[in-house]
Design a protein that fits this description.
By secondary structure, this protein is an all-alpha fold. It is built from 15 helices and two strands. The protein has a two-stranded antiparallel sheet with strand order 1-2. Strand 1 and strand 2 form a beta hairpin.
Length: 363
């Protein structure tokens, strides 16, 4: 068995697979330097522009409401609600000016205080019966999201963590979290590398007619299958984790660990470190499942073209369906154990398949 495993290690780490790994690692460096860093650098200027627009918008709203109030006063109508609305937009105007000014001067503490003040002012208006449709531009999602945001901001302020205002800062944990986000470039690179290093796991032997030599080596077909499966799966996981770790390390040395951040999961605040570790475990299991399915496809079809095309099409479908992709990382521990059990069952079935197949007519 040791000889078989050693031989499979040598086969897996071919020049092609080493090249795929190097390209994957270089891609992570390029993605960090030319995508995430510029994205962070542009974030402040884009936010300044957003709050400047809000200042203009709030000023226009206040002016219109003031004119309405003056008109209603002339005819003796009640203007209390309109006056509250005007006071809100005028207060928001001043808050937006403060945020814009402090963003330009990179004063995270003052930005955080003003953002919380702005959100709490909005919550007060809503609690007093304000029309949600009038404040949709500030709500982002819904009232529950606003309440969670205020709680989260209060927690950050209590912990004296103010950098939460820079949402796109590529810290170590922010980079890691990008592997679990729909359409994230890093996860696409990882999946592509897994497919390219696994698609001809078995089919290359059948296409080159070396399968007879392979299965007449010392050892049973089961040992030959398990040695290749174990080596391919473990090597694929190691390659994937090393590529993931590159972004984590780059983020750490450039912007810090970023472990002060919390993620809202089912109305519960979870430290980003725990959230990332949980999702990383899910990722490892899913990558093992993907590797298994590609290997099985390669063995059953004995055709490299088919075993490359099918997973690529599945990846394309996955990336075009935001709900499907997002639901993958919301699976519970029971489903995760079912997937692990399924991997074991699939390999057991493949061992039985190899033991019974007539290799003389395999090609």
């Amino acid at each position: 068995m040791k000889t078989l495993i050693y031989n499979e290690i040598r086969i897996f780490f071919s020049n092609r697979n080493i090249g795929i790994f190097i390209i994957g690692c270089l891609s992570m460096i390029v993605i960090f330097c030319f995508y995430f860093v510029p994205k962070h650098n542009n974030y402040i200027s884009s936010q300044v522009h957003y709050y400047e627009q809000m200042v203009t918008s709030d000023a226009t709203r206040s002016k219109i409401i003031t004119e309405q109030i003056n008109g209603m006063k002339e005819i003796g109508e009640d203007t209390e609600k309109l006056e509250k609305s005007r006071d809100f937009w005028q207060a928001d105007l001043e808050n937006c000016r403060l945020v814009s000014y402090n963003l330009e001067h990179e004063n995270a503490h003052c930005i955080a205080e003003t953002m919380i003040k702005r959100d709490k002012l909005l919550q007060k208006v809503i609690d007093e019966g304000g029309d949600l449709s009038s404040y949709s531009i500030m709500l982002r999602n819904d009232e529950r999201d606003l309440k969670n945001r205020i709680k989260l901001q209060d927690m950050y302020m209590k912990n004296q963590f103010y950098d939460f205002v820079y949402e796109k800062m590529p810290t170590a944990y922010y980079m890691l979290s990008n592997f679990f986000v729909f359409g994230g470039i890093p996860i696409i690179v990882i999946l592509a590398c897994v497919i390219l290093s696994n698609f001809d796991c078995w089919s290359k032997d059948f296409e080159s007619n070396t399968y007879k030599l392979l299965f007449t080596m010392t050892g049973s077909r089961a040992k030959i299958y398990l040695s290749r499966t174990i080596v391919t799966s473990i090597a694929t996981m190691i390659m994937s984790l090393m590529m993931i770790s590159i972004l984590f390390v780059l983020g750490y040395f450039a912007y810090g660990l970023g472990d002060e951040v919390f993620v809202i999961v089912k109305n519960t605040f979870v430290p980003i470190s725990i959230w990332c570790m949980n999702n990383l475990m899910i990722t490892i299991v899913l990558l093992a499942f993907l590797s298994t399915m590609i290997q099985v496809l390669s063995l059953l079809t004995k055709n490299s073209g088919i075993s490359l095309l099918v997973p690529c099409l599945c990846l394309l479908v996955l990336l075009t369906d935001i709900n499907l992709f997002s639901s993958i990382f919301s699976i519970n521990s029971l489903i995760l154990w079912i997937i692990i059990l399924l991997i074991v069952i699939i390999h057991f079935c493949m061992v039985k398949y190899l033991e019974r197949i007539d290799l003389n007519g395999a090609n």
